[in-house]
């Protein structure tokens, strides 16, 4: 097996271990949209910004999922106790949504595992734009 085949094999082995992962990790990786919702929520938290259903709907491309599907993911995350709702300090009509602090460690693990992985793709996109 050449080097690329080995890398793919290693990735698949790691990916298949998600079957034994924490409930939050299984939730996060369950669909492309749930993955994006979790990363968008954590990005807002790490940036000390609030995130809400409306902000998620305006940020996540519509091709990834509808407003109803985003709402379903948020409802499931709230039901499973992965997310919490907090009344917005800026607008009392808005409920901000956060990932529970103790679950952010899984996001940090994901960041560590993928540091440098996307650098080549970002470089290619920047070169295309030039």
Report the sheet with the most strands, covering strand number, pairing sense and barrel closure. 2 strands, antiparallel
Chain-averaged pLDDT: 86
Distance between the termini: 36 Å
Spatial order of strands in the largest sheet: 1-2
Low-confidence stretches: none
Beta content comes to 5-15%
Total helical elements: 7
Give the fraction of residues assigned to helices. 55-70%
Order of helices and strands: HHHHHEEHH
Rg, rounded, reads: 17 Å
Q: Based on the structure, what is the oligomeric state of the protein chains? A: single chain
Report the principal-axis shape.
Answer: elongated
Strand segment count: 2
Structural class: mainly alpha
Structure description:
- This protein has a two-stranded antiparallel ribbon.
- The protein contains seven helices and two strands, in the order αααααββαα.
- It has helices spanning 3-16, 23-29, 32-46, 53-59, 67-79, 104-114, 119-129; strands at residues 83-87, 95-99.
- The protein starts with a helix and ends with a helix.
- The radius of gyration is 17 Å and the shape is elongated.
- With 130 residues, it is mainly α.
- Helix content is 60%, strand content 8%.
